[in-house]
Give the backbone structure.
Amino acid sequence: MNKNVMTIGNIEIMSISDGKLEFDICEFFPDIPDESWDQYRDHLTEENKVSFNLASYFLRSDGRNILVDTGMGPRSRHPDAPWGELMDDMKRNDISPSDIDLVIMTHAHRDHIGWNLTQENDRHVPTFPNARYCLSYKDWEACHNPDLIKERFPNAERCVWPLQELGLIDFLDDETSITSEIKAIATPGHTPGHVSIQISSGGETGIILGDVLHNTAQLREMDWSSRADIDPDLARQTRHSIVNIIEANDYKVLAGHLPSPGFGKIMKLNGVRYWHGF
Ligand SMILES: [Zn+2]
C-alpha cells in the first residue's frame, strides 16, 4: 500500500497535500516563551520554525468520493509560496476534480478552503464541478462576522460565500451524519464551528482532527494554544476532551497539519503522551 494511504475498516483514505506553511514559533505561539521550546526543538524545522503540512484527505464512502479540506489554493498572488500543489498532487494520485462528489470543510480558515472555487473572469465556479460542499453553520456565520473577517477569514468572501448563491452548500450541525460511516462532530475553539470527521468501518474508528493540533509538541503541552485559535480556552478544552476520547477508544488519527501524511496514533509511555506517526 502506498505510504499516503491508510485504512479504517473497509475504507481507504488517501492523504494528498497542497504544500506547506511555515511560521516563526513566537509568531504562531505568541504566549509560549522561546525557551519553553528547548525540549521540543526536534518538533520544529532546522530554522526553528513550525511547519504545517496542508493535507486534504480523500476517501470513498456509500459510493461517494469525499474530499476533506482544500488547502490554501492557487499561489497566483504569491508566486514563490510553498503551497498551491493540490491539483498537481491529485493528478499524481489519479484523482480528477470531477471525481469529487462532496467537499467537507473542517472549518473556514484560509488554509482549508482555498481550492473550493476557481475564479473565471468575475465569476466563481466550483473547482470540483460535481461536488456539493459542507461547512458547519456556525463557521458560515463566523466567516460573515464583520469583526472576524479581516483577521480570521480573509479568503472566505471568494472561497466560501459564493457557494450559497451557487446552491452548492449544505450546513453541518454539532453532530451530523454525512454517510453511514462518516459523521462530523463539533470540536469548537479553533473556530466557533470547527468540526472533526469521525470515520467508522469494520469495527475500527478514526478521526480527521482538523486543527485541534498544529504541532506534535502540543500532545505534551496540551494547553499550548496558537494564535490561530479564535477562542483559546475553548480550543484547550476541546483538545483535552477529544484526545481523551481518542486514547480511551484507541482510535486512529488523521491530522492534516502534522508531518505528512498525518496518519498516526496518540500513545502514552510512562504517562507521557506522544505522536506515533504511521
Ligand atoms: Zn489550518
